[in-house]
Fold these 3 entries.
Entry 1:
Amino acid sequence: MTYDITAIRSRFPALRAGTAHFDGPGGTQTPEPVIRAIADALAQPLSNRGRETLGERNAEAIVTGARQALADLLGASPEGIVFGRSATQLTYDFSRTLAKDWAPGDEVVVTRLDHDANIRPWVQAAERAGATVRWADFDPATGELTADDIRAVLSDRTRLVAVTAASNLIGTRPPIAEICALAREAGALSHVDGVHHAAHTLVDLEGLGADFFVCSPYKFLGPHHGVLAARPELLRTLRPDKLLPSTDVVPERFELGTLPYEFLAGSTAAVDFLAGLDTAADGTRRQRLVAGFAALEGHEQTLRTQIDKGLAALRGIRIHSHAADRTPTVLMTFEHRATADAYRFLAERGIQAPAGTFYAIETSRRLGLGDTGGLRIGLAPYNNSEDVDRLLAGLSEFLG
């Protein structure tokens, strides 16, 4: 594997400002090929999709290309790729659609490890349908959410299990394939929030066994919109609310209004960028993505080890990320110091490491951090060892 971090960083114009970014879980910086793809899409003729005019053909090619690119990234079928404004919006849309068939006595499982975007839509849909919400807990001491934790709240009335593939707050990666298999055995559907997961690990929808998987390209170097992947045959069984004249074909029946063509072009470029992270790789796009993510995981593991060792040498820090399998994400709090003060202190030194709950409100409360949360450090493909040195030096200075 070849991971040339110097060459990679040179392709991110935002890095020229000199900031060391540890805010990847909230959204990554954008590489030049993605910026150029967005601009190029807007610079050519564009109109509603079709096959007659150049603008129509350009729009059609962008959408078709983006579906294939995201299918390659997620190990899915292009006919199962649905685009939306955000992962939150897509989850709300699908919660309303699925809840049409729920009734009193039915049950929905959510977890306290999840971002609220994979909790509140299901809770609210269940309340409207008269269904019961059952909560799967995680161990706050270890950060682990196990298959047994899900099994404990499953029943023959479970209609859906909503679970994160990786906690955006503490990084925990639950055993998703095992959890999805449990849901399937119970006769339930599984909805997996992969927003944080997809930025660090190559997804295989079939291997995970997830019925629905959502992610956000802006978490992995692309523009701001949402993506849902599912089996086309499953999507064909669902009847979302839609306009009468809009198409009823899958996946378009779930996409409301005109798609953001320029952002879809940018997402294709982001996937291609990820496929080029291992400069020695060749083959199909999926094969190059396999190699690229392997190289990325190796790079991030090296930096994560550097961070973990550096934090262990500092006094006055409490670490809340302990799961054996987790993304390169660390949540911390400080003895007698506010995390918001640390955030500002680091920002003044050109180090971006934000504080808060990051919408994982249930996780923060379960950890005993209330609605304040902690300081989160998260890696992205462009971070390097010098960034980590600056972070550790800044934290050391803050702690005095």
Note: The chain has 14 helices and 13 strands.
Entry 2:
Amino acid sequence: MTSTADHAHLRAQLDTLTTEAFRPELAEIDRRSTLEIARTMNDEDATVPAAVARRLPEIAAAIDATAARMARGGRLIYAGAGTAGRLGVLDASECPPTFNTDPSEVLGLIAGGPSAMVAAVEGAEDSTKFAIEDLTAIGLTDLDTVVGISASGRTPYAVGAVEHARALGALTIGLSCNADSALAAAAEHGIEIVVGPELLTGSTRLKAGTAQKLVLNMLSTLTMIRLGKTYGNLMVDVRASNEKLRARSRRIVALATGASGQEIETALRSTDGEVKNAILTILGQVDAPTAARLLDAADGHLRVALQAAEDH
């Protein structure tokens, strides 16, 4: 049972957070026309990319460190509660179809477990114990990277995840939307995207959520670029799990090689639909087994494998 003193302490904490600040000039926003409110909200959203831009050096440093760990076999693990947790789960779930990663390589942990994706789980975000249990359950090691996500920067689940991970020697990143946050202080790489007070007081699924989504997009995408999951700006590790992705696979091979439709079909068939391998058979003029061997030797980097094929 939470005491009155605990409530008072929490309220005092919230009063200091930029993301929780009340904006008197918007106190009668509900009396405006829908178009006026939409314009105001759109103007607010437009400030988010600039806030992210101010932290690009910190973001880039965190990405390079993450890629180095993953290149040695580590995993990328997101941990958060509520909106922040959902955004982490979303980013993790999109890596396998986009970059052909194994589902175990990028993971999203949300306070309260999978059911918290669609419904609030009472008290889950307030527990550092749950965070430690969740990380223990997935067998956290010092090769892994743990990204704590919390708009306020004080959520016990996210802070606890980062503290526990750092104690075990894992790489830690703290993504917050308030300055001088406990989360950033706890992490090796603190990233604070200060977006200011929300349109609706304390509704951090708005600007703060948008900022977190932009940073997570960068974190996963640029890490995968560094790991050789792309060739230029082409998703050569895309997994063709449906008809749309199969069509995209053929298009990517065409863009990368300029080959004819028949040549592309032959290459994809010989490589079991693996786009990167198909490109290598065409551009490197090697057969499928050789392409697989060269890519394996190059740790999946297509440019390196192409150079090896030319020297072959």
Note: The longest strand covers residues 145-150.
Entry 3:
Amino acid sequence: MATAPRPRTTTRDPEELAHRLTAWLDTRLPGAKAVDIRVPSSNGMSSETLLFDIDHPEPPLHACALRLAADPAAYTVFPVYDLARQFRTMRLVADRTDLPVPAVRWLEEDPGPLGAPFFVMERAEGRVPPDVMPYTYEGNWLHAATDAEREHLEAASVGIVARLHDQVPLSEAEFLTLSGDGDALHRHVASQRAYYAWVVDGLARSPLIESAFERLTELWPTDPGEPVLNWGDARIGNVVYDGFDPVAVLDWEMAAPAPREVDLGWTVYLHRFFQDLTVAFGQPGLPEFFHRDRVEARYAELTGHTPRDMDFYTLYAALRHAIVMLRIAYRQVHFGEVAVPADPDTLILHHGSLRAMVQGSYWG
């Protein structure tokens, strides 16, 4: 990880994109110009983000962010990018909770202006825990913080998940219901099986991922409980912080009804993913940060719901992440950045920890 090139995140020409954005903006706010257009260093490999300011005598917005569906010709990470769904989700959460969700202003479903659908939202100023190099590595603001500052950030971030689950009426989120049969958990897992089938279509399959699905069946919760609206990508890398307080909750493309523990398992495991990588490269990382027991206890205190079956849900999180990692690896193969190894499981960065979870030895 310390030496491998970062996978490319876009195939689009930034200058052409900026020109087209300015032309589109004039149709929504005549006389306005998009200025200081830039791609954030934290841009991911799914939907793309552009940051820009509006130059206008009386702008309704000054600082903006634009979320653009991935270029369908660029070997996308996900099969579908439903920007209208994300737009509607953010409006729902902003309307029904006290979470700091950026106000969404414009939705453009016509792919003509920028080559794909997009929406524009207000931009919050602050800082985001880095993914590359991960915040668990030395040399970034979160690693350099005091234990008390990190504990404050952790508590506030678990609070985001707790309040989301408690405050959004699920009846108003029916448009996010996943297709298929059975309860919300069965539908959620079925959607991941379908995603995996899409990722390996015509390519080498992953025996490890398939064994993880089998292990999920063995660990299936007796009572998953009533579903709530899940954020879907519940991790601190999707939060903007002012100091150590959340000021913007981002990336809602995986939102869906599911048991509470689906979000919690993702929150716990995505930190462990970075922590394990950091330890493997000879640094201590942040072993007490987002510790599973502490996250579960804090969530229970905030909601009155004691998390259960967390071995299942952390395995499920690691499995979901493995499918994404495999797709990203095959994307690198597509662009000639890496070659396919004899064992496709080694394309999954966390194959060791996922295997340990399947075997039941990861959590000790």
Note: Confidence is low (pLDDT under 50) at residues 1-9.
